[in-house]
Design a protein that fits this description.
The chain is α+β, with helices and mostly antiparallel strands. The protein has two domains: about 110 residues, no CATH class; about 130 residues, no CATH class. Helix 1 runs antiparallel to helix 2. The protein starts with a helix and ends with a helix.
Length: about 250
């Protein structure tokens, strides 16, 4: 068996997964609150290759064979916030996630504070999910009471009338969250969300994605070169095998 051929083929598969992640990052670079997809490479042992066995000997030298292993993850590093001056745009400065209630009553979390007012005056996310208060209730704006005002701790008021405080949640290990889409996450079973003690929320700001587009473009070039190199190895090994078969008749 030509191990090198299988190793290069496995490398091509790993590079394709990396390319898929980079492509998704580039496509979502302008999505509010998006979190970068990351691909981590390692190797895994796939047995030993015996060679150099002498006549009468059942075993010769052994060479360990390794194959690439790919694991996907998400970078939860915070991104920069930029001003929008819009009434329903909020950004969390520091740790935490806004809490949303989905139509099936399940809970989701996001760093995207790009909110809007629904026809029934309930504050919802860009996904259409209800934005929750720390008391676990949706936020309903008042008719004819002026603009919505949010203080640094997330307290919402209209004309001095309190509407509640935005739920800002954190997790002991946020890497255990799983994505529902680019900026929306859910907690795995057994994970408990905790209230952020002193959240800092800025009105009229949005947190962007944590993707550096230039870095992703550089990665695409690296992927392309590595892919071509492995293709050349496969081609060379294939030609070598054909020559051997021709020589053996």
């Amino acid at each position: 068996m030509n191990v090198g051929l299988y190793q290069s083929a496995s490398s091509l598969s790993a590079l394709e997964k990396w390319q898929d992640a980079v492509s998704q990052n580039i496509t979502s670079a302008q999505v509010v609150g998006y979190r970068k997809r990351v691909v981590n490479f390692s190797t895994e042992l796939a047995g030993e290759l015996q060679y150099g066995a002498k006549p009468g000997s059942a075993k010769g030298e052994a060479m360990k064979t390794v194959f690439p292993k790919v694991e996907g993850s998400i970078s939860y590093q915070h991104a920069e916030s930029h001003p929008t001056r819009r009434e329903y745009d909020f950004a969390i400065m520091g740790e935490g996630y806004f809490e949303l209630r989905m139509p099936d009553e399940s809970v989701a979390y996001t760093r995207s504070g790009e909110f809007r007012m629904r026809s029934d005056r309930v504050l919802v996310s860009s996904h259409g999910f209800e934005v929750m208060t720390a008391d676990g209730n949706p936020i309903k704006l008042l008719q004819g009471q002026g603009p919505l005002v949010v203080t640094d701790d997330g307290t919402l008021t209209q004309n001095g009338i309190p509407l509640g405080r935005l739920a800002v949640k954190s997790f002991a290990d946020e890497t255990q969250l799983y994505p529902l889409d680019g900026s929306l996450f859910a907690a795995r079973p057994g994970m408990e969300a905790e209230d952020v003690d002193k959240p800092t929320v800025q009105q009229g700001y949005l947190e962007g994605s944590n993707v550096a587009s230039l870095r992703e473009m550089v990665d695409l070039v690296l992927i392309s070169r590595a892919y071509e190199a492995n293709q050349r190895i496969i081609s060379a090994l294939d030609q070598q095998m054909q020559k051997t078969l021709d020589a053996l008749g």
